[in-house]
Amino acid sequence: MGETWSRRQVIALAPVGIGILVVRVLVRPGSTPEASPSSSPVATPGASPVATPMEAGRPVSVADKVTIRLTDSGFRPDYVQATNGHDLHVTLRNTGSREHDFKIKDLDVDETLAPGEETRLTIESPPLGDFTFTSDAPGDEGFEGTLVFYI
Fold first, then answer.
1. pTM attached to this predicted model
2. Domains of the chain (ranges plus CATH)?
3. Are the C-beta atoms of 43 and 58 separated by less than 8 Å?
4. What pLDDT, in 10s, does the model give residues 9-58?
5. Are 103 and 137 in contact (CB under 8 A)?
């Protein structure tokens, strides 16, 4: 009745048992595993024509559309890379509790948004280069981001 396991069988099945144990420990019943931000890929212009929402300090790469949130603590995202050779459509959304500006002096962009307001603008045939966007609304001292147009 009692079956005896050979050493070879135990060694062969050990990795399977360890794998099951690891999965049971890491994935608890009712939970869904989530990717960590550090392992999530960054959007690329060819693969993702619409910006992926990201926190400040993390670049967003887009082809022809991007949404930038104006918050009470800065721009989200605050670094945008876009391909040039075509127009860039920008949606600005003020998710903060006070008025915020969005200005790019070198591209003659100057928008002011009230809390909850959204606007769209088009940067037509942008040149190559790095462009700083800012807000000089009261309380926004130091709000700055970068828009990079590349080939």
1. 0.63
2. 42-150 (2.60.40.420)
3. no
4. 656 655 655 655 444 545 455 544 444 444 444 544 444 444 334 455 67
5. no
